[in-house]
## 1
Amino acid sequence: MSLPEPIRNSQVLRRPLLAVSRALFALLKTGPALLRRAVYDAMPVPYLVTGRPEHFVVATADKVIGRELFLHGEFDFAKLQTALAIIEREGLPRPKHLIDVAANIGTIVIPALARGLMQSATAVEPHPNNLRLLRTNLALNGLSERVRVLAQAVGAESHASLFLTESSTNSGNHSIGRTGLPVDSTRLDDVDCPHDGALLWMDIEGYEGHALRGAPNLLSVNTTLATLKTRVE
């Protein structure tokens, strides 16, 4: 219910109301994790902007990736940093191009570019809602020109129709199945992107083997492969 016009426009009340609002927002940023989690779960709006140092628009219905970004500022990015540290430890060339398969809303590709760990990227994402947020978040962080976004799934064949079984609470848990949302697929070998000196990063819910069947040429060059399987309770 909206406040009466005189209250909303009151010069006397404006300053204390702004002070209270700032205090509440500060508590949401730095308060106890249990309180912040409860606030996120009770959020009355469908989207919010969160994350640090990068910024992400997240769907509040996402109780895994969106919530982790709200609570901790990033999601799973430490795993990419670990992979790059292993590459460096083994004396391998540092990848310059990231091929992010199932890029979701940009939680890996955006910090990888924004923090100078990669020069460019190809982001592959089949789910339309994730895709809209991915493009929004790339623009929000000023990275749209450095990332080629493909609205596809990957599999053993190109120009095939696959079905995406959707999760209502985890945008990263959509998986290829026998029924669901129809999505177009492509072979990784048919993706127009740099192969030499690239890092292939995948988290596609158990469908990695099918994707790699479509990537013999990609894997025959100097491409580093990292498959990621994460379960967040």
## 2
Amino acid sequence: MPVNRLLHARQAMAGLGLRLATGEDIAEAHALAAHMVGPAIASLEVMLRVQAHTGCTCFAMRSAEGRLIGALAVIPLSARAGPSLARGDFDGLSPPDAMLAGPGDAASAFYGWGMAGLTPRSRAAVVCGAMRLQREIYGDLPFYARAATSEGERVLHDRMGARAHVGGLVSAAPWRTDGASALGKAA
């Protein structure tokens, strides 16, 4: 992912109280996801690998007391993910490194990996963060996801405009169709 997109994502999320997740944040977020969704989630090792490769996948929100209260994860994808996304068989539980867009790489799509909030404020921040990523950071790219809960499905359809794709995926066309990024050309 171009460096300016990565930096803008960090700044946009910070404005909502979400910060780039540390390994500790990711471990806590993984435990939270396992509790809320069940075992059909990416492993902790995969989450740490994807965060290390992309540099900007997982974001966390903590309470004033330091408790994890929200998490948001999206994966910027390289052009190599295109055929898998089109067929609907993209493996969100263990995405191959070749399909991930790292810092300095051009992203061709992004995948909504997960979001959770334990308080009304954190839920609002996480949903707002997902929408900012869709509209500002990755606004020139198509969006894909798989809903793990009925609440997530409502957010994807009602707030983010996602529609049924193939293979259980949902997708949304780029938010901006002019082909221009809100950030200008890649750095």
## 3
Amino acid sequence: MNDSKSDQAKDEGASPELNTKNLGLGVALGAGATVALAAVAGLGVVYSGAYNVAATEEHASLGHWALDTSFRNSVKARAEGLTPPEITPQMLEAGAASYKAMCAHCHGGPGIERAGWASGMRPRPPYLAEAAAHWEAREVFWIAKHGVKMTGMPSFGAAHDDAALWSVAAFVEALPGMTPDRYAALGGQVGHYGDGENPHP
């Protein structure tokens, strides 16, 4: 009789541990099933063509947030160890010429709008005379060198050395607050592709 009571007490003492294990197993199985269903649903969207890739349609707010947040955090993490060189007037002059040849058609400049076709890009390229205030020179350098997937921003690193790209980054950093006259004077009129038909916002 005593042995039976002792065994019963042991079983009752072990029961919370068994319940915890069962609960953990149930949560793991539930999480696994949820991931599997999400994967199947994702594959269904991919293979069915249900997602509209047309650039005539804006990104959904959730998609825009996810892409923009990933973009900013990715650039910040990868550019963190870069040290910009000292900015010189020669760098600004060289950077202005390169910017006007390579960047102005998508990003505009003080007094210069984007090329009309750039407003049809998704995501729309930022108007850097304003947006550059939110980026550090080392981040602009990293973007120019490596490009950004799924944005239309190409990598210029294969065709331009670091010195040239630091000059572009220095010029971009100087864009906020730059007057149209100053913009026009730096780097000459090389490569001005803006057609002024579409506003930058």
